[in-house]
Specification:
The protein has about 300 residues and is α/β, with parallel strands linked by helices. The protein is about 45% helix and about 15% strand. The strands form four sheets. Strands 10-9-8-11-12 form a five-stranded mixed β-sheet, sandwiched between helices. Strands 3-6-7 form a three-stranded parallel β-sheet. Helix 2 packs across helix 6 and helix 6 runs antiparallel to helix 7. The protein starts with a helix and ends with a helix.
């Protein structure tokens, strides 16, 4: 079973197994796995976030989970390495029925698959909400949590509708990532472009490079763009690097001259939810709630 599952995950093909199996849509194609794996190890924070929101028990987690909402789960699970380097000995000792990798740990699929059946559940930033919905559905089916998945999806859709309503007619926006003193911006088609696409928020700049790392810019660029709103992600806060905060980085004469700053239209998003757990069900709800609150405060 393990050899066939690993091959399927790598080749993006579907398997035919005994009755009672469930097919999930992975980042590498549809894969059929056991319907209710009993012992699960997870190396993806978005997956961990969604599974926890569904009430799925997880036996193995990374040594650092980044989100305060996951600390209780982490305290009861076994540490099995990091997002970038799984501890294969610890994983083998856990003897999981299923290993979930994704995002930062996706490159470790081959390694974990040598220990136990493994699937890559990376979420594509360009289709973040589409992928988030699919993951909720598939995890619900896989772990026998269909009713919980339906309720979670309904709550997510309600949050999305509220955010769209709050942002409607409020003007354009510029999504800014700070990394200590450095700044990058993101537009439609980029890693964080879903904010524009899903909430129908016009971009303050139309021709930004749709890169996963954004487009490195200067404060003069932000001043020239003069957005109605600044939507800010603090990468340093997300990863806990201790570098200069987003508020400190942006608090300068050029940014203070923008419409967004003058009007108090600066929305600081929950950093780890946005950067580390992007596409996780609870994390996405936190983001949408923050956006709703920010636009409603106008």
């Amino acid at each position: 079973m393990m050899t066939r599952l690993c091959a399927a995950a790598l080749l993006g093909i579907s398997l035919t197994t005994a009755a009672g199996a469930a097919t999930v849509q992975t980042a590498r194609g549809p894969v059929t796995v056991e319907t209710t794996p009993e012992t699960v190890a997870v190396y993806d924070i978005a997956a961990l976030d969604t599974l926890d929101a569904l009430g799925v028990p997880v036996a193995g987690v990374p040594s650092k989970v980044y989100l305060p909402s996951l600390e209780t789960l982490a305290a009861t699970a076994e540490p099995v390495g990091t997002l970038f380097e799984p501890d294969l000995e610890a994983l083998n000792a856990l003897s999981p029925d299923l290993v979930i990798v994704g995002g930062r740990s996706a490159t470790q699929l081959d390694a974990t698959a040598r220990v136990a059946p493994s699937i890559d559940m990376t979420i594509d930033g360009e289709r973040l909400l589409e992928d988030a919905r699919r993951r909720i559905h598939d995890y619900g089916t896989l772990f026998g949590k269909e009713s919980e998945a339906a309720a979670l999806t309904a709550a997510l859709e309600a949050d999305l509708a509220a955010a769209r309503q709050a942002a409607a007619g409020k003007g354009d926006a510029l999504v800014v990532l700070t990394n200590g003193p450095k700044i990058s911006v993101y537009g439609p088609g980029s890693r964080f472009g879903w904010i524009h696409d899903e909430l129908a928020i016009p971009p303050a700049v139309d021709d930004l490079e749709p890169s996963i790392h954004g487009e490195a810019v200067t404060f003069e660029f932000i001043a020239a763009a003069d957005p109605d709103w600044l939507i800010v992600l603090d990468r340093a806060a997300a990863i806990g690097s201790g570098e200069q905060s987003a508020q400190a980085t942006l608090d300068n004469a050029l940014v203070r001259a923008t419409t967004a700053w003058r009007e108090g239209h600066v929305i600081y998003l929950p950093a780890a939810d946005f950067y580390i757990a992007a596409g996780g069900a609870r994390a996405t709800r936190h983001l949408l709630t923050a956006l709703t609150a920010g636009f409603s405060a106008d």
